[in-house]
User: Fold this.
Amino acid sequence: MAKATAFDPRPWYLLSPALLAIAFLVIAPMCFILVYSFYINVDLGVDEVAFQFGNWQDLLTDSYYHHAIWKTFRMAIIVTVLAALLGYIPAYFIAHTNFRRKWLLLLLLILPFWVSFIIRTMSWIHIMGNQGAINGVLIWLGLTDEPISMMYNEFAVIVGFIHVFLPYMILNVYVSLEGIDRNLEPAARTLGCTPWQAFREVTLPLSLPGLAAGSLLVFVLTAGSYVTPIILGGPNDFLFGNLIYDAVVSELNWPMGATLSFTLLFLLGLVVVIYSRFMGLNQLYKALS
Amino acid sequence: MKQDSTKRYEKLRERMGNGDIDRRSFMGLLGAAGLVAGVSGGIMTTLSRQALAAGTELNFEGWGGIVSEALRKHAFDPYEKKTGNKVIDATFGGEEEVLTKLKAAGSIDGHNIIHSSGITWYQRWVQNGYASELNTKNIPNIDNVMEAVLAPFRAITPDHLAAVPYDYGTTGIAYNTKYVSEEEAKKLGADLLLKKDLKGKIGGWSGDWANRAWYGALQSGQNPNNITDWDAVWDKVREHRALILKYWSSGAELMDLLAKEEIYVTEAWSGRVAALQEQGHPIGYLDPENGLAWMETMFVLKGSPMEEAEELLNFMLAPATAIAVAEGQKYPPSLDPTKVDMPDTVKKLPAFDPTGKLDGLVFREPDKWNAVEKEQKKMWNRVMKGA
Assistant:
């Protein structure tokens, strides 16, 4: 029988600051949100302490909320797929370029982060609006007499999301591509692969962890957003986050807002768990670090 | 020094009232007086520094855009120069947002004076326990305020006031005169917002359920202050929703959408339309019959530094300041035009009532609207999203 090893508390001492921070900043607020979801909203801004399932019942039985969840996941999938397709190309270029100042390209990638997210989102009004740059050029070229309506619809919201979240995808894919041995593709070609086959059979599979990590980030960030649809969307463009905003800020119904918030947290947490089960979170840590 | 500055300010104001100097010169002299007090040597400088060092910070929250610009330029900056106190102004998306923050924080830290939306919100702030008690002796300029705007607030808090009414306006309908004629607008009235030919070129305000419901009531032939058929109201709101391009959420967005001709028709705030007209945009404005009027207050939250707040309110209500702000933000001041001589620029503002009685304007009755708000606001948020 193997001898039981003595308990070594030292790692726990070292971990304790991080554990305390997580407990106070993540676990405790989540617990408060969960507890609040059982309260009753008596009037605007007036809540009564209770333990009842009315808010949860509303959530589970009301198709209004189900529709919002469906819209949110649908939008998040569209944005993620488009970001993956659009982000892979620049990531591949940066990873394989012989340009000596590669850091400059990476700097250009993160440069937009220096400008407020709201400002970047609103900039599309001046690009795609009736009096925006695109319509201005089209009218100047004589290609159209009237401005083409491009704003305040789902297309504008998707453009806004991709604009803001694309760098996350590119950085993740880039980190993954950088980790691949540069000799593998030439080796595949010496064995008879065409350039496309070498990419498809060697590079793409090896970069999939980065692609998956970028996709997870873009998916979670999109699904948790609510400002972009407000600025760029029309009346049909809203996400689950907008319902939370309505409940908390507009209706002053914190118990319902807590129920909706916890639901979104749970659903996105589920996505992360599924991702972790199949892909592992290591690639995500690598890209973020 | 504080007393001296106040006296100087009163003298300046008196000179202006006598016609000795025009208002622009007055504001310039006021600023110069502050500057002189700040940079002159000897005891004045020392006292000025002491006053600045001892200055109290007042946090003000308002609607942003031209309204904030006008308040900053004509009220806060001169007030700061005069008193050494500091006004930190911020923009809110709506008073719900402020109330949410206060509830979340459990204190009024960082919040003192709210540019509040009139009677219904006055009642809400009072009911939530945030009402201060203003010492109106410290606000002598309140004597110039119209009794018509004071009475509704006194009805809610008979023993005291927690706010002073500051301006009023209407939420009428803005339309682009290139696409809608004045005759057609007048003929259609509230139904202009339901004109099918303009599908995709109509806007709506997302921020206030009562505003939408008010128009729904007008369009369904009901008295907005006595709605009996809410289903009919929301049916009209759905009809409007099917025609709109976007629900806008701020005054700046409203102006941007109209100026860029993304939309041709929307309900709009009278002051914002006046600003667009001044900028040369072809925007007409219509107050339909029984259109929505409102008055705004400067609401002081309980626990704020009261004397400083009262001094600021008194300063803001001084005719010179109130008129300058009114000209800047394009909403008539709450001052009684039968007591205070108003310039033509104010007399020409939409919604201006020369009688000082506001008989021609229809305001929300807080008891009627607040009673149904919980249920109907939820409905509005759903209808807005297509439910």
